[in-house]
Amino acid sequence: MTINGSDAVIKVDHVSRWFGNVVSVSEVTFDIRPGITGLLGPNGAGKTTLLRMIAGLAKVSDGSITVFGESVRNNSDLYRRIGVMSEHETVYQFMKGREFVKMMARLKGVADIDTAADRAIGLVDLADASLRPMGTYSRGMRQRMRLAATLVHEPEILILDEPLNGADPRQRVHFQSLLKRLAAEGRTIVISSHILEEVEQIAETVLLIVNGKLAASGDFHAIRAALDERPYHVRLLSDSPRELASALVKLESVDAVNIDPDGALVVLSRNVRDLQIELPRLAKASSIRVHRVEPLDDSLESVFGYLVER
Amino acid sequence: MGSVYRLTLRQLSGRWRLLITIVLASLPVVMGLIATMVDDPPSTEDFEGIVINGMLSGSILPLVVLAIASAAFANEIEDRTLANLTLSPIPRWQIVVPKLLGAMTVSVPFLVGSAFITSQLFYDGDMTAVLAVSVGAFVAVALYSSIFIWAGLMTTRAIGFGLLYVFLWEGLFSSFVGGVRFLSIRHYSIALMHGIDERRFGVGDNLSFAVAIGASVAVFALFLLLSIRRLRRMDVP
How far is CA B200 from the centre of its chain? Predict the structure, then answer.
């Protein structure tokens, strides 16, 4: 499976990882090319394990992973070209932000440490707080300073595991525009998230991981369109359920209606947008009071489940 | 390596850790002071057996080194900061060696200092004896550091492992099972003290000076290599 257009930078070939009897990642194969690739999946899907294997932090049980054509495991020289930001807040509480970024620059073998640290801290807009101990930072600030440390050696590949955790809306916008800028410079960025909308705004391509398997991959918009076509279950509570049910089945946007024993209607629709418009009109015309409307399968798990079944 | 070394020094120099180290390292000094002040001072054999061999080499020194050296990696694994180091373009040995040196740098001043002052007090300025005890303590700090650095990488229960090792292996078995002294850091340390100053620690079942030197070098190198190997093979959290 190939992502994006130019030569593959990261190759994941039939990779599996198991812990005892538990399979965390199963037979996953894909290539990643320059640009932003979103790794999407519900919590516990295996995203972090997969990213940790790509970063060389964890062993593969089977299969192989190469970065720039080389195995990344125990190949420390490759880290001059890779920046990894894990999902955990791996900072030294006693260290000032600038000290941390400078230490990471030194470890990465950067020549002009002060200039590199200033540039990286400037990129995440944290110059004012850089002389404070990181123990005093908010979660969002810690994430940004960690991103500065990840960027300090100007890596060609960025691997970011749930980097927007703890970021406020303004920080999200800033972060997203920064990633777009870095991708435009030709870098390869892999960003994981369990929130569709987070990835939708920045990633051109996505890899969908469900239960350790690659459920879908490719252009984000095509996958999003497939998501929009899926049938939705909507639960309705009204004062005249049978009357409302008979009116609803006449609508084009409704595929089926069931009446629960408690009198609630469960409507199956492939066009929820039209249903949203038509339902109030229909209720008003029939003089039916609708007390409650709730989607039944809006969770990410159901979205991914749908994609897996297709 | 300098960055990892400085980082390790800061991580291991927490206020509480240093305070406990100072208190424990002071105990042999206090004993030495008391021994010189009482009307009926203990014999040299008794003092060496109880204070130098039993208290310092047998318990305080390994326990303090355990608390410091095992934390060098175990704390980084626990708070998941170890990835900051392993994701850098430096070979694994350049992470392990400064960690080991950092742990020793924190331990040595207190423990070798304690050995130096205690022996200075009791042996009344006999510099050969003072040198023997100080060198023995230094070698013990180095060897225990090498072992406990490795333990911190191997298990999240390094302290429990270390306590069992210190009290069962070094304390109990090495005292009562003859062959175990060939694999006992406390016995290497005492043999080195005796080798440097033959008037001291002549307990009869000492290892030879040459065996003690060879075994010390072998144990230090073995656990250093095991730590490097472990860091190369483990999944870093």
Answer: 21
